[in-house]
Amino acid sequence: MSKPQRGGGGVVWGSLLVALFLSILPMPAWIDEFRPPWAALTLIFWCLTLPERVGVFSAFAAGLVLDVTTGALLGHHALGLAVIAYVVVELHQRVRTFPLWQQTLFVWLLLLVERLLYLWVLEATGQPMPTLIYWAPTFLGALLWPWVFVVLRDLGRRAGLF
Length: 162
Hints:
mainly alpha; 7 helices
């Protein structure tokens, strides 16, 4: 069994940049409401697999970049992503042993927490409450988790990260 390389940070940050790009990619309004939380899914994966390298600070920084690029209230996405990263880093040893279907449920709960935090920020800033479609990205993110997991795992293996 070969020892994992210490490098490969470019793969981690490159995948996060792709996720951020997918999060800001212009789409028609009717489909934009269903946009999966790519940044959250990618951060969850890297926090699960490399918690010593990707954590709360990385998530907060990615969230700030997402806030700036989407024109959201500064700290809006950063708060949600940092909370998700904290939970994942704290529970990574336990969650890694889960079968993929249980990981999917865990990811779905994390995405729900993220959306609840966003809802709380919307309420605190006096913005109008969203409709039920607001929750659709959490379900879509949970459905996409197995594929995101497999793609990023294979990418990490090719880069020699694990």
